[in-house]
Amino acid sequence: MDRIDVTNPIVNFLFSLLEDVGKPKAEVAAKRVMERLSGVNIVPHFCRIEDKDLDFYNDFNIIVLGLDSVEARSYINAVACSFLEYDANDNPKEETIKPMVDGGTEGFKGHARVIIPGVTPCFECTIWLFPPQVKFPLCTLAETPRTAAHCIEYAHLIKWDEVHSGKTFDPDNPEHMQWVYTEAVKRAELFGIPGVTYSLTQGVVKNIIPAIASTNAIISAACALETLKIVSGCSKTLSNYMTYNGVEGVHIKVTEFVRDKDCLVCGPGVLIELDTSCTLQKFIDMVKEHPKLQLSKASVTYQGKNLYMQAPPVLEEMTRANLTESLFDLMRRVPSGTVHVTGTTSENGKKTSGVRKLRVAFKGVDGIADMDTAGGA
Ligand SMILES: [Zn+2]
């Protein structure tokens, strides 16, 4: 979705010309690679990753990520894992595995990892690897700024709203950025704080850490190599998380992370077989009694759609009619599918909320044979 910024040519060999500034990165990158390598065919897509439907992603044999946020990674990870199916013994069906190679850099540090859904940890299994993003307390920004970043965030988060009531700040609008920069400079002068520059303003507001060409080259090379290994089978892939640190000297380490067996995104979930006549209400009662689930006051979603919600009252009312419908009909008569159930559990007398992933298979419907005989049919 990005367009080429004036600072990009320094760190990206594909955007070498100033005339590229303002053009979509995807289109220029595709053009430059095809110019350089004959026989290579690249189709650029200039849009949000969420704009493509599941069929688009399902067409690929492998997905290589060069994303810049946790949210975007989470999204693609969920998409790739949604194709994953398990057999009756909770083993992933090989033909439904969509491998991913993920790379990322931050200044002199970077990582490359291989995600084979159902085999290696998915992005969500190890989401704890990402530290929470630094946010400054508003009172510090408003009263006791101590750093250039504090002054920038003051202009960005507080002053902007005071002056432009109702107008949303657009980080991609140079005029907006310039306004924040000017205000931040005034703020810094008032408190005698040095270091506010336009590029720092961009960095703080957009949460950008300057990219380093060598780090990008090393990480993208690692990703390309892992991709080659997966598509050709020429060697074992790295298992499964490589970190690179070039801050002082060069340090490269591979750590093997393990899967979270209960992961709601890539895990098998609990398999439940139902009659096609089973109503949603009966299913909710069953979830409460099931020894592996024991969730009371359950809300149920299927493919992001609310089938039944206990709260808030307005949603409860909207979904109440579904309780007497059969789950089979509500799941559009598929032989099997995954539903997410949210409810309360009690552990040692303490009530906590929990989410469970359930693989529902309907008895006597085509496809059920797969569930009965592992890997059969
Ligand atoms: Zn996972």
From TrEMBL:
Select a single GO molecular function from the record's annotations and give it. NEDD8 activating enzyme activity
Gene3D superfamilies, from UniProt? NAD(P)-binding Rossmann-like Domain (3.40.50.720), Ubiquitin activating enzymes (Uba3). Chain: B, domain 2 (1.10.10.520), Ubiquitin-like 2 activating enzyme e1b. Chain: B, domain 3 (3.10.290.20)
Q: Which reaction does it catalyse?
A: ATP + [NEDD8 protein] + [E1 NEDD8-activating enzyme]-L-cysteine = AMP + diphosphate + [E1 NEDD8-activating enzyme]-S-[NEDD8 protein]-yl-L-cysteine
Q: Which pathway is recorded for this entry?
A: Protein modification; protein neddylation
Annotated catalytic residues: C139
Which Gene Ontology BP annotations are present? protein neddylation
Which Pfam families does its entry note? Answer: E2_bind, ThiF
- Function description: Catalytic subunit of the dimeric E1 enzyme, which activates NEDD8.
PANTHER family of this UniProt entry? NEDD8-ACTIVATING ENZYME E1 CATALYTIC SUBUNIT, UBIQUITIN-ACTIVATING ENZYME E1
Q: What's the protein called, per UniProt?
A: NEDD8-activating enzyme E1 catalytic subunit
Organism of this sequence:
Carnegiea gigantea
| Highest classification ranks of the organism | Eukaryota, Viridiplantae, Streptophyta, Embryophyta, Tracheophyta
